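Dear colleagues,

As part of the handover before I leave the project, I'm documenting each prediction I ran so the next person doesn't have to rerun anything. This entry is a single chain, and its sequence is reproduced below.
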Amino acid sequence: MKTIDILSKGCVCVPLVATDKDGVIAELVDALDRDGCLTNRDQVLAAVLGREKIRSTATESGLAVPHGKSPGVKRLVMAVGKPTTPIDFGAPEGYPPSDLVILLASAIDDTGPHIQALAKVSRVWLNHDFRDEVKSAQTSDAIYAAFENFDG
């Protein structure tokens, strides 16, 4: 699986307007909805927010990966957002705020692809060159290009 196969250019938001976790999640769900990826925006938003309330999806390396499974989406989709300043995603003590937020949404019965996408996103983020490119990116096109360049 390549993340670029589930990411549309219209679903990359740089910079994010929202400055808090719930706002960022809503903004990325709205990007998916505008791009025609969702059948029910509110169901997807509720699923992702509900999952995030169980446990923060922030990582120790400045990435947050909010995700959810919902009947409001027919296939696995992804949205990416880069905040102007890193956002507190409710990470455990000692974790930095999030420099990048990658939201994944999939259909209820899409467990395998959903887990594969979570793993792929984590592997791509571990690449220091990818992280450097993302951190220096100033536009949605630059973030999308980073996924194209490092998604192999």
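The domain at 3-150 is CATH 3.40.930.10 (Mannitol-specific EII; Chain A). DSSP finds five helices and five strands in the chain.

All the best with the project,
I.
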